[in-house]
Amino acid sequence: MRNPPLFPAFVSQHSVNFDKDAPDLGAQFPGIALPESLGRAVPKRKAEFLAGRFCVREVLRRLAPEHAEIPVGTGKNREPLWPDGFVGAITHTLDFASVAIARARDAHGIGLDAERVMTDDNAERLLDKIASPQEIAQMKRKTGWGTGVALTVTFSAKESVFKCLYPQVQRYFDFSDAWIEILDGERFSARLLSTLTPSLTAGRTFEGRFEHDAVSVCTGMVVTPST
Length: 227
Ligand SMILES: CC(C)(COP(=O)(O)OP(=O)(O)OC[C@H]1O[C@@H](n2cnc3c(N)ncnc32)[C@H](O)[C@@H]1OP(=O)(O)O)[C@@H](O)C(=O)NCCC(=O)NCCS
Prior knowledge:
Elements: E1 12-17, H1 25-28, H2 43-63, H3 65-68, E2 73-74, E3 80-81, E4 86-92, E5 96-103, E6 109-116, H4 120-130, H5 133-143, H6 147-169, E7 178-182, E8 187-192, E9 205-212, E10 216-223
Antiparallel strand pairs: 1-5, 2-3, 4-5, 6-10, 7-8, 8-9, 9-10
Helix pairs in contact: 4-6, 5-6
Coenzyme A binds next to helix 2, strand 4 and helix 6.
């Protein structure tokens, strides 16, 4: 299936559609094992995990075949434990999973996130948890989007920021720690509002890419050694 066009060429990506209600999940993703910790998880969680790890294996088969058959584990804050020398990100929605991986010499971190577009009503209810009213107002003014699309893009961009910077920050940080602006039809900026580490200081700004249609949003971001 087509990868959302979010990354430079040194990032390898693989995406799949899957059926979370399929009776035999394993048949969709042969050779991918569920960790013991997910043995009693609900079928949706099992399906999304398998879909994500299937994409990981497909990318590693191309990028680093020697690592492809070794399961990528999960760290203390649920982060994927990439093979030494690699960074990456995993995302999944109800029926879509995607993974992006790069060599650590090319990227310090990768963010990737996919979301279903929220309704305007849901977005109004969730707004305070994800963004400031001014952040969403400026985005709606600039793009002409409704609240649902604006908040979904903002939410997804912040999730990408979190996954991308987590390897450096190594702890949870919040939606209020970044401010998202749309730069043009493909690019967003993410400005840190808090200092997260001695080098990730308040005011630092990163650039990411997004794609959206009426039902889905996908965002991606890469921090390179020269960013
Ligand atoms: C971790 C989080 C970003 C995951 O996003 P999500 O929309 O719930 O789910 P997605 O399907 O897009 O991504 C799930 C994958 O993210 C990855 N992930 C989870 N925690 C992670 C972390 N700490 N660092 C990097 N990646 C992480 C995992 O690979 C996970 O899939 P898996 O459990 O099957 O391996 C989200 O649950 C969260 O905690 N957000 C709050 C923190 C935040 O976004 N702050 C905003 C800062 S500006």
